[in-house]
Amino acid sequence: MSTEEENKGLYEKLIEKAISCKNTAMRNTNLEKADILKFLIEKTETDCRPFDDFDSLHREFTQKFNSNLDLDSFRTRFQYVKKLILLESDFSFERKIKLLFVSRCGISSEYHKELLEKADVQRDDKNAIVRYVAKDGSLILEAEKSKQKKKAKRSIKTEAKKRQIRDSEDGNDENDLDETASKPPPKKRCSALNQSSSSGAGRSQPLTPAPAQNEPDSTRSPAPTTSAQPVQNSVIADAREQAPPAPRFRPVKSEDPDEIVFNNRRAPQPSVPQTIFFLKLFRGLVDMIEPYKQDDVLNNIDDVMRTYERIGDSDISLLDVVPSINLSISNILRHSTSIPQKNVRYQSLLDFLKNWKMFLKTLHNDHFNEALEKVEVEINNLHVEKFCPIDQISRCLQTILDTVSPPAF
């Protein structure tokens, strides 16, 4: 089917809907939807790649179609067109995949499985296609960098600069304190003008005469006694004992702002969408353990996800989630004796491990190769049974615990 035929069929539907509307505003809305659809189809022919952000996409659309459509209205029309693309049957298969790719339209798991029969298809955390490689090589689509990754990098760089400024200010304050402590107290200078009229010159002389060599100077501070030093040392020792212990795992600065160093091992800092996606995966695994329910664990994970969604991209790292994950897995393993021997379906556990493997791959870092190998081993060790025994569940949980524990980061 040619592009003209595809455009004609879609335009006819939208234009007929516009003509049938007696309301002028509704008519214009449908015409704007048709223009957006045409705009996306043309992008698949000239620049077939996912858009970076709505602002640039909206600006490009208004310039090309000489439209005065505001950003919010454009976003609403765009969402409608994405649904139309997903449900439209007049497209050729290749055209539909390109439109889904360009518009960042999310696809269902069922449709994803259907596409996997013909190609290697990868989705992001919004279920949008970011990579499509046909097995016969007829169509290859791959996004350079997702919007989430760019946004995360900008956030990480900004936060790295803030940390660098704070560290430099703290260092300057410490240096000032050290210099102040090392300097002797300033001497008070008192002088009086010589009022002798015979000399005619105002010469400064001390108010107090200098003491004789054999006479002690009462103005001088007494020499420190030997008993004062042990007292000072005891005070310092008491202060050290009262000071809180240093954290076991402490991130330090790295030369690369896109990385953090944890226990002398570098790893990327995942973005907020990636972190929330991981929490959803982990919550799904915990929820699969039936009839034993970890209500406190599930509530804890939900609270963490709500907090991250509320505060946005600032000061977020997967490292912040590690304590909650460690505690949750430890609680599950500690109560493993009370869990029935067979309670999780094989396919559910296998799907979770595959999704966890995909999540580690999205971090795009060689430091996670060892973690990926562990997940691969667990996938290969799973036996094709209707239900999985508790030892396999415990082993999988331990694998996840190893891959998210602080030493791995």
UniProtKB/TrEMBL annotation:
SPK domain span: 32-143
Q: Which residues form the signal peptide?
A: none
Biased-composition ranges, Basic and acidic residues, are 156-169
Identify the Pfam families for this entry: SPK
Q: Where is the composition biased (Acidic residues)?
A: 170-179
Residues covered by region (Disordered):
145-256
Q: What is this protein called?
A: SPK domain-containing protein
- This chain's source organism reads Caenorhabditis brenneri
Its lineage reads: Eukaryota, Metazoa, Ecdysozoa, Nematoda, Chromadorea
